[in-house]
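Hey,
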Amino acid sequence: MTDQAALARAAASDDLIMEDRRGTVAILTLNRPAARNALSLAMIATLHSAIDRIAQDESVSVVILAAAGPAFCAGHDFKELTVHRHDDDRGRAFFAETMRACAVMMQAIVHCPKPVIAAVHATATAAGCQLVATCDLAVAADSAAFAMPGVNIGLFCSTPMVALSRNVSRKQAMEMLLLGEMLEAAAAREYGLVNRVVPADRVMAEAMSMAETIASKSPLTVAIGKEAFYQQLELDLSGAYDYAAEVMVRNMLARDAEEGINAFIEKRPPRWEGR
């Protein structure tokens, strides 16, 4: 299926998140094109539910997160948020619910044992940029752009900052957060926000190539590695080595590690069992 065909199929549906399967790769497509895929509370809940479901689905090895329409994701749905300024509490409860739900959804992506690849065909701003930063890998169109523009409208991108500052250097993060300017895809790659930049019509193909390479590995090993990667980042150097050593021992005792090592020694393809 071409990128254009996939986007057309998504745009024709009323579903907030479209799901497609290509072998063991699940493709989730944000599908609010008229709203530039803004993260309404319903959109957040739907994406969270899809990620949680896929996390338990043994038939899925990798997730690709794509989007329909002219933007990848414009961030939070300000129209929805603004409506609640008329609530008795001026929207405090709804704002808190939205930010909490979004934070939990982003963490669900990190905790998902399946790698998640963002296929970014267009602009990703604020919480949309946060979504890209949260994914394990990201492929961007050479015409895509990224921004943390909240400062321009009096709303610092504080929650998007959490994911951004865990992807790029402090100076680069602060530049994006304080200036609120658009960052071209090539610069986003230099910053470390995305892994690869390709022509727009190659975004999905490149993401699929990465996904299929990952899918050829032991699913148990990939899950162990993804969890360990994020866990060790939060530890000091000594603690990280202690933790990683325990993970290595556990991984070495797994059937797939035994099979992989034997296959390497015997110069044959491994036969993964996922255990």
